[in-house]
Write a structure and sequence with these properties.
Layout lengths: L1 E12 L4 E8 L4 E6 L2 H11 L9 H11 L2 E12 L2 E10 L2 E7 L1 H11 L3 E4 H6 L4 E2 L13 H5 L7
Parallel strand pairs: 4-7
Antiparallel strand pairs: 1-2, 1-7, 2-3, 3-8, 4-5, 5-6
Helix pairs in contact: 1-3, 2-3
Length: 159
């Protein structure tokens, strides 16, 4: 089963100094953090902030190519979590046929923002992610896994 999610925040992991995308279940309280590279985070941040560039950036180019080829992006799905690596696909529709392309989650999310399409996550990915949490985290014996700033402050873009 797949769960529709939205971007809840984009921030820096203070321990690893790495950007994190926080996805939140649109119908629940589950959240899924996905660590991404700085360039991928920037591509997402540019679209979240609706900043214009003089020339198309890579994800804008991909969106334009898809559009010019007569296809639309239907949705993206984060499909698997294998050895701490997330996997995703971009589902497109062209002439009534669904075309599925393998993608890194960060690229798929950047494209989803530009194409204004939904983001889904396979329920097993959330269950298997040791880093997933709910908006109101329960006390845990080992709070070292999550810096307090990530649990308490996931509401705003913070890059």
């Amino acid at each position: 089963m797949e769960i529709e999610m939205k971007i809840r925040g984009l921030m820096m992991d203070p321990a690893a100094n790495t950007p994190i995308i926080i996805l939140k279940d649109v119908n629940g309280d589950s959240m899924l953090p996905i660590w991404v590279g700085p360039f991928e985070a920037n591509a997402i941040a540019v679209e979240i902030e609706k900043l214009a560039s003089q020339r198309p950036m890579t994800h804008d180019l991909v969106k334009n190519i898809i559009w010019e080829l007569g296809a639309t992006v239907r949705r993206i799905v984060i499909t698997h979590l294998i050895e701490n690596t997330f996997y995703a696909v971009i589902e497109m529709v062209r002439n009534g046929e669904v075309v599925v392309m393998d993608s890194r989650p960060s690229d798929a999310i950047a494209l989803a923002l530009r194409a204004d399409c939904p983001i889904y996550v396979n329920e097993e990915v959330i269950k298997n992610s040791s880093a997933s949490f709910t908006e109101e985290p329960s006390p845990q014996e080992d709070d070292d896994d999550w810096p307090d700033s990530l649990i308490d402050d996931t509401s705003d873009y913070k890059m």
